[in-house]
Design goal:
Elements lengths: L1 H25 L4 H18 L4 E5 L10 E7 L4 E6 L8 E4 L1 E4 L3 E4 L30 E7 L4 E5 L5 E6 L5 H14 L4 E6 L2 E8 L2 E7 L4 E11 L2 E10 L2 E7 L6 E3 L7 E5 L3 H7 L2 E8 L1 H15 L5 E9 L2 E8 L2 E11 L4 E6 L5 E2 L1 H7 L3 H5 L9 E7 L7 E6 L6 E5 L10
Antiparallel strand pairs: 1-2, 1-9, 2-3, 3-4, 5-6, 6-7, 7-8, 8-9, 10-11, 10-17, 11-12, 12-13, 13-14, 14-15, 16-17, 18-19, 18-26, 19-20, 20-21, 21-22, 21-23, 22-24, 24-25, 25-26
Length: 426
Amino acid sequence: MKNVKILLGIAILGLMTSCLKDQEDTFDKPSAQRAEESIAANYKILAGAEHGWLMQYYPSPYRTYGGYNVFMKFTADGKVTVASDIEDAEATAESNYKITQSAGVVLSFDTYNEIFHLFSTPDAPLGGETGTGWEGDYDFEFISASPEKIVLKGKKTGNYATMVPCKDDNWADYINKIAVIEEDMNFPKYSMKIDTTTVDIVKSYRSFTMTYPTATTDTTISVPYVVTDGGLQFYEPVTIAGKQISGFKHATDTWDFACADDANIILNGIVPPLNETFVSSDWYMAYSAAGEYAQAALKRMEAGSATEGETIVLLAFTNVDGYPSLYFRSGNYAGYFCYSYKFTGDDTITMYYNGTNDGGNAPYYLRNCDYTPIVSVFGFDAQSARTFKLTTDNMKSPTYITLTDVNEPTNVITMYTQGISYPFNN
């Protein structure tokens, strides 16, 4: 029995020796040396793309804002030149980069780049919450790398970013092309039919919110995408009603766009009537864009705030709990006046101040700061309701809406989609 135990021990020792030898054969170089070689190889791949790289990049841990095209040209001495469809087509910015070993081989954009770091700066220059911004990555782990394709993973968000070599140096041409494609495919809302399933779709930034019925309830999913020279490409395919969808193909002079995976599935752009667009969106006001009647009311509003030692910072129409509402901010104080309304055609709306759904400091300013005239511009009560005809520059994607009182031609106000601070200076 003792001999058997001795023989068994020898056999086990032999197996262990064999395993150790296999490991030595597999990793025949120290880990530090392997890391250095990988770093050197990745520097060579990055700098080796003659015309640079095109990255599909998704900031935000939840990909809330969708994906963006980022062009990058690397040099062997640690410089990178960046352009992106988030900026003007001709704009570029140069900064430094480095590749290091840190729980994997990591690409870091380690000095501030005026374009690339827009996605991560907490000042929120692109929107989002001040203090966090879009929470984009600037450190990426290499998942794979070859001269044909690089796959990275954001250290903070966990989002994947793919990079392919650019075909030429005309980055601006590509950016301008996809801007046209994005505008062609941009609609206030969409609908899609998959067999008998209807999918309702709205868009925020570059992300679709899709809602569709399932067996027991409605399902809502977020689908971030990037705009390419062929259309809209999803971050990852989604499956709805048993069909896989990875994006939609661009087409000109149409509101219908075929699915990249199945030509029978169509994304249909929908343009609502202009009055629906008005009551469902935010519209910013400027003194200079008002007619004589409305300007007189605005001047009294400005004077009323001045009696409180305040300047009007913002004036807008917005939707509050289903009511179109006149929102204001006077100094550090804000409030809103809510209006009841009805549609009297696709491009007309009748409104009046209902006096019951106000919020914030609205009642105080109405009583004490001579705000009654500006509230009356849109109809002070049911007996003095006003009907406006609405016009715009682009039904599909308006930049402004002009309200013209059908009974008082000088009561005209143009409101803009772009935010306007200090409306009396504009």
